[in-house]
Design a protein that fits this description.
It holds the Pfam family Lig_chan. Residues 107-178 form the Ionotropic glutamate receptor L-glutamate and glycine-binding domain. The protein is an alpha/beta fold and 509 residues long. Among the domains are: 2-69, no CATH class; 204-294. The chain is built from 17 helices and 17 strands. Strands 10, 11, 12, 13, 14, 15, 16 and 17 form an eight-stranded mixed beta sheet that branches. Strands 1-2-3-4-5 form a five-stranded mixed beta sheet, with no helix packed on it. The relative contact order is 0.12.
Length: 509
């Protein structure tokens, strides 16, 4: 607010005015009369024009109250004002760039519809243009900011609408409207591959169970031998250690034995071994094996940040992030686990990508890449590139998207009023679902429509998908049979050579 004694000199002062700065000038060029000039008296974008909005005289007082017009009423109608809006690549603002003719083909999209609703309600026009730097911008660094947010910060454009996450660093450079999308931060990996069917025979039991099972089998024979010897008061019997081992092996292989024992303790042990082999080990093993053959097992997916960090540290896993995005800012400025992950990313050959689409193509074609970003964006793009190629992690944290405006924007309240009404009426959700529906209609009817896997649970569509049975599911049994034949043949060969040597020695002596 300025007090001006004379109207002269205002023309030079107008050249420094900005619409985001509210300027009120009080002119006292006549005795007893004060004129009030204001630069927010019209919404047509001519913020450098000072309009007479009120005056005061010592005889009649104030002409009308309040002193200055309310910005909310002024900016209800922009009177056809033209806004230049920078656009980035899909998903939500679906556009196609043409670098030869510098034209943008608009194919509609969620944000394009939202901007159309705002323009119809507030009576303004807009045109899209390709920004010099096709990135969002994350923070002010060394007195400058990259991307489309840098254009808003330098007051070259008025707004940007897109998949733009609200962060503290960005709020220092631009002003955000009411939220337009509620999203969650996740990371995307390649879909877990199916495990080798040749190892299906050892997979029904966890690796921690197998040592206990094998120990039970190996110790059962010597324990039976000691029990038989103790029942005969440690006298020599017809049963030796080899016979006891053979008997227990036959029991665990579910074979019958012909020998009988008079001692009740020995009989009780044999019955106990039959129960363990049949109902505890055998039935559980058979049930788990049948279940795994019916639904082939997959590799364990990476579902949280701790697992991702371990995979990056020990398994040459690489994490990608879109440069100048909100995820990039969180990783670069984060602490704890985020800081450790960022340090590993700095040693990668590639860590920053130009767009989410580039990262998704790398994740789809390679198993050692992951991409961090917004869940809604990933859900949309996975349906474009094939949901069965990807796996979504657990939700890391909640984030919100909004429209970016200049700091001090006078019409932010008008935008917020419309956005809140759309949010309360469920229009945002309906617009998002409509984009998914349009995407499904564009897909060929021959494509198998699957949902992307999330967390540790597989989708129902994958479980219900029927597969033709093949011999690959049973190849492990044949490998085991061949191995058994080979070992048995070698043992027989060794015994045959041993018997021949003993026969030759006996014949010589």
């Amino acid at each position: 607010m300025f007090l001006w004694r004379d109207i002269g000199g205002l023309n030079k002062f107008r050249t420094f005015l900005q619409e985001s700065v509210r300027v009120c000038i009080i002119i006292n060029n006549r005795f007893g009369v004060f004129q009030i000039l204001y630069n927010h008296a019209r919404a047509n974008g001519r913020g450098k024009i000072l309009d007479l909005v009120n005056w005061w005289s010592n005889t009649n007082g104030m002409f009308h109250t309040p002193l200055l017009p309310v910005a909310f009423k002024i900016y209800r109608n922009f009177h056809g004002r033209l806004f230049r809006v920078p656009v980035l690549h899909p998903p939500w603002n679906f556009v196609t760039y043409s670098n030869t003719s510098y034209k943008i083909e608009v194919r509609g999209g969620r944000d394009d519809k939202l901007l159309g609703l705002l323009s119809n309600k507030l009576n303004f026009d807009y045109e899209y243009f390709d920004p010099p730097d096709r990135s969002q911008g994350s923070a002010i660094v060394n007195g400058s900011m990259q991307g489309v947010l840098g254009l808003i910060w330098q007051r070259e454009v008025e707004m940007f609408i897109g998949d733009l996450t609200v962060t503290y660093e960005r709020s220092l450079a631009v002003e955000f409207s009411f939220l337009t999308l509620t999203d969650n931060e996740v990371f995307l990996t390649h879909s877990p591959s199916r495990l080798n069917e040749a190892l299906a025979l050892i997979r029904p039991f966890h690796w921690q169970v197998w040592p206990a099972v094998l120990t039970t089998i190996f110790l059962a024979g010597p324990f039976l031998y000691l029990l038989i010897r103790s029942a005969n008061r440690w006298r020599t019997t017809n049963s030796n250690l080899n016979d006891c081992i053979w008997i227990t092996t036959s029991i665990f292989l579910r074979q019958s034995i012909s020998r009988t024992y008079k001692s009740n303790r020995v009989r009780l042990l044999i019955v106990l071994l039959y129960l363990v082999a049949t109902y505890v080990i055998g039935d559980m093993y058979s049930a788990n094996l049948t279940s795994m053959l019916a639904r082939p097992a997959r590799e364990k997916p990476i579902t949280n940040l701790e697992q991702l960090y371990q995979a990056m540290k020990y398994s040459n896993f690489q994490l990608l992030v879109e440069k100048h995005s909100a995820s990039h800012s969180v990783l670069e400025n984060g602490t704890g686990l985020y800081k450790n992950i960022w340090e590993l990313m700095r040693n990668q050959p590639v860590s920053l990508i130009d767009s989410t689409e580039d990262g998704m193509l790398l994740v789809r074609d390679h198993k050692n890449f992951a991409l961090i970003g917004g869940r809604e964006t990933f859900l949309y793009d996975t349906r474009r590139f094939g949901a069965h190629y990807f796996h979504l992690s657990e939700k890391l944290y909640t984030r919100y998207s909004a429209i970016a405006l200049q700091i001090g924007c006078p019409f932010v309240d008008n935008f917020n009023d419309i956005l809140m009404r759309l949010f309360e009426g469920g229009i945002f959700t309906k617009m998002t679902q409509e984009e998914y529906r349009k995407l499904e209609d564009k897909r060929p009817s021959t494509d198998v429509k699957k949902e992307v896997l999330e967390g540790t649970v597989h989708s129902d569509s994958e479980n219900e998908h029927r597969m033709t049975a093949s011999m690959e599911m049973l190849q492990g049994a044949f490998f085991l049979l061949i191995t058994g034949y080979f070992i048995a043949g070698k043992i027989l060969e060794i015994l045959e050579i041993k018997d021949k040597n003993e026969f030759i020695l006996i014949k010589i002596f």
